[in-house]
Amino acid sequence: MIPYARQNISQSDIDAVIAVLKSDFLTQGPAVPAFEQAVAEYCRAKHGVAVNSATSALHVAYLALGLGPGDILWTSPNTFVASANCGLYCGAKVDFVDIDPETLNMSVSALQEKLELAEIRGCLPKVVVPVHFAGQSCQMREIKMLSQRYGFKIIEDASHAIGGKYLGKPVGCCEYSDITVFSFHAVKIMTTGEGGMAMTNDLALAEKMQLFRSHGITRDFPPLKKGGRGDLWYYEQITLGHNYRMTDIQAALGLSQLKRLDEFVACRRRLATRYTKEFKEASVKMQCQHENTDPAWHLYVIRVRERDRVFAALREKGIGVNVHYIPVHTQPYYQKLGFKWGNFPQAESYYQEAMTLPLYVGLNEEQQESVIANCRDYTS
Ligand SMILES: *Cc1c(COP(=O)(O)O)cnc(C)c1O
């Protein structure tokens, strides 16, 4: 079976992990801050807070912005459930903004209309979470302008988008957001096995996220508070946090993978360009790429009629196609919260036709040829 995604691990990745295994620290050692600094430099943000998953990164990001009971968070229905679930962990109310049928990202016009209505009804969101679907940045400049008008905070769920660019700048630089979150899960663009990071240019937010990732405990005191007794054992728990720490083993793998990131993205772009060229000729519907973006190509998605039939036939042929995403509001848990089919028609109609094709570093020409040939056969 040709999978839809697969990690790429080199000998230098393996050596980096072994070096940490032989070192003094498996966790809370020097590799984590080194990885944070390297990612921050890569995407030109001031701070990076490494955690054990993007889900944890979203959770500490929402907490750092003060999201809580009585607050409202909006995200895209075309995402993994975690973008929404973390709002529920905070006790906030979660709602969605429908997607643009061309880019498959949160629609700026749908966002604007929903904000106008919410202002009248007195139920504006505290936080909006655009998701860079498949690795293509959302229209962040426009979303930022709306945030200034309506007073919400912005968190970019960039789980698909490390290595991508928006208006010539790296995704993660946070020019148009308060916090940007990356995922290093094994299917994503670069990996630490499980892992995530929250980027920000705001020191106060970074410090809050550090607190929430480690039990709400701080050891950072002005010298006087330590009583001048050199009590190095002293710590205080000042809020309720979690254990969301990344290990040094993961961070070492991340540091090594980061060195290969540009190569990964270039390879994904080559593969994606080939798909696009072939499918244009076969009039297969694809995700439109906005001119302001330079996507990282986490996923290559196409839209096909009779998707279920085509999907089954391709799987039968050993092609590990997948579907991203079942709209979050249609999940049974979200239906119990009151959401219904029909609430976000663009996300739903995309889902009916959505199919993700194999795209990863290591997919060879012959394998891609077989994916393309089979897709042509079954979609024509
Ligand atoms: C993968 C993913 C997440 C969660 O990432 P983890 O690192 O697995 O917790 C969140 N949002 C999106 C859009 C994702 O694709």
Strand and helix layout:
Blueprint: H1 11-21, H2 31-43, E1 47-51, H3 54-64, E2 72-75, H4 82-89, E3 93-96, H5 108-121, E4 127-129, H6 140-150, E5 153-157, E6 165-166, E7 169-170, E8 179-183, E9 196-200, H7 203-213, E10 217-218, E11 236-237, H8 248-258, H9 261-281, E12 285-286, E13 293-294, E14 300-303, H10 307-316, H11 332-336, H12 345-353, E15 354-357, H13 365-379
Parallel strand pairs: 2-3, 2-4, 4-5, 5-8
Antiparallel strand pairs: 1-9, 6-7, 6-13, 8-9, 10-11, 12-14, 14-15
Helix pairs in contact: 1-8, 2-8, 3-4, 3-7, 5-6
The structure holds pyridoxal-5'-phosphate.
Task: Please name the defining characteristics of this protein.
380 residues; alpha/beta; Aspartate Aminotransferase, domain 2; Aspartate Aminotransferase, domain 1; 2 domains; 3-stranded antiparallel sheet; 13 helices; 15 strands; 39% helix; binds pyridoxal-5'-phosphate
Classify the helix fraction into a percent range. Answer: 25-40%
Question: What is the β-strand count?
Answer: 15
Q: What is the structural class?
A: alpha/beta
| Unreliable residue stretches | none
**Biggest sheet architecture:** 7 strands, mixed
What compounds are bound to the protein? Answer: pyridoxal-5'-phosphate
Give a brief description.
With 380 residues, the protein is an alpha/beta fold. The chain contains 13 helices and 15 strands. A hairpin with a 2-residue loop joins β6 and β7.
